[in-house]
Amino acid sequence: MSTEPGPAVDTHGNPVLDPTKNVLDLVDAAVKRLDDLRSMEAQHSREMAQMRAEYEDKLRLAETARIDAIRSVDQSAVQRAAEVQATQAGALATQVVATADAFRVSLAGALEPITKDIADLRKTQYEQAGQRTQVGESRLNVGTVLGGLSVLLVLVFGVIAVALR
């Protein structure tokens, strides 16, 4: 017989664990559970970060599309404004030409009587100047004839006086 007792068993015949071993097993199980929880939390954090990244990418793409749509509308508005401005500029240019032509015709109509009056005044001046010149020339012709006649008479009387002597 041995003096050492055998392994301890419970009422069902299962070996009874030493309470120290039991405590160590419980501590190991708790540590394993904490490690599992940490591992699951890290995995959960990675999954959440990945989901956030995907969501941020989707938000970024949506925001880019929204901004592009706004820019497209703005560009369309600018282009439309430029077209309207070009149309208005063309209409204004046509209106300026039409106004200039109408003014030219109106001015010509208003100046026609003045131009005619000036032409009539010039004609009258030329006629009066011509009449003065003609009067001056006729006076000159009468003077020349009288002067020539005087010379002729002096010569005739001079010849008669010489012949009578």
Radius of gyration over all CA atoms, rounded: 67 Å
Topology as a string of helices (H) and strands (E): H
How would you state the average pLDDT, rounded?
A: 85
Number of helices: 1
Shape: rod-shaped
Question: What are the defining features of this structure?
Answer:
88% helix; 165 residues; mainly alpha
Describe the protein in words:
This protein is mostly helical. The protein has one domain (16-131). It has one helix at residues 19-164.
Offer a concise description of the structure.
The protein has 165 residues and is mainly α. The protein has one helix spanning 19-164.
Structural topology:
Elements: H1 19-164
